[in-house]
């Protein structure tokens, strides 16, 4: 079964991490990614741009209407997402709990109900 793992953050959180700690933090995340790619369970890992780069797109009279996003006013926003395919929800929960930041920040786990052909 496939699951989406979501992490959240904001510029304030990123800025609070001292510059000299970033290489270690990135190395931990890359080790997590490599570990689960090797098992075949991690299908993709994606970091997202800062929320100031988000755009909302609607259609009006057949034309795109673009505004700044994100849609909800929130202190935190979607920072990254991971697509995993594993044998059970319990396994997906273990993978989510193994995320390097999971001791300080929660990871959302969303079951994927179907996939378009």
From TrEMBL:
Residue ranges annotated for the YCII-related domain, each copy included: 1-112
A Pfam family that the UniProt record links to this protein: YCII
Transmembrane segments: none
InterPro entries (alphabetical): Dimeric_a/b-barrel, YCII
Homology family: Belongs to the YciI family.
Protein name: YciI family protein
Species assigned in the record: Rugosimonospora acidiphila
């Amino acid at each position: 079964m496939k699951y989406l793992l979501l992490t959240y953050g904001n510029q304030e959180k990123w800025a609070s991490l001292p510059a000299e700690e970033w290489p270690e933090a990135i190395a931990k995340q890359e080790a997590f990614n490599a570990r689960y790619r090797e098992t075949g369970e991690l299908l993709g890992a994606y970091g997202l741009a800062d929320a100031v780069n988000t755009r909302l797109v609607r259609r009006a009279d057949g034309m795109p209407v673009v505004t700044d996003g994100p849609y909800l006013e929130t202190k935190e926003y979607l920072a990254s997402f991971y697509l995993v395919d594993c044998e059970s929800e319990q396994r997906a929960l273990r993978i989510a709990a193994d995320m390097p930041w999971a001791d300080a920040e929660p990871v959302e786990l969303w079951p994927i109900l179907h996939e378009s052909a």
